[in-house]
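Fold it.
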Amino acid sequence: MATALLIFFTIFFLSTYVNAETPTFSRNLSPSSLGLKREKLTHLHFYFHDIVSGPKPTAVQVAQAAMTNTSSTGFGFVRVMDDPLTILPENTSKVVGRAQGIYGSASQSEIGLLMVLNYVFTEGKYNGSTLSVLGRNTILSKVREMPIVGGSGVFRFARGYAQAKTYKFDTKSGDAVVEYNVYVLHY
């Protein structure tokens, strides 16, 4: 009887072990398995309003290094932003989203910002979708290019680039309006 039980449990254990699925860390999928269709290229055009002055700024300084005030490039400052994105350069123009994130002076030799932000869209078919930017912005260059590294909603699996061109900069207040042309591949 003990031998029969031993054989039964051995067979049961081996059959359970052989039939059990081994957990996997990763697997290959086709885009269609996630409901993704054909990839497309979208061009977005808007104006970014970075307001650092006045009673209701849209970007505020949250940190600085001991040397920031003596640095010719402002090296070491960090700002958090929630800047409106509009269709036209006027601040009264229709708002289509927000630029939310941080930027900081990351160069000691030129005015170069590290930009880490999301474009959060609030209008039309892009309402609720985002694009993520992570890149260098040398603000004194005529045209700057920063990578789009991802997105959400309509922009899942997004990749592309954003071109920035200063439309207006007030040297007294530090306020700026920047024209953006964004080219993004997404499904």
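The mean pLDDT is 91.
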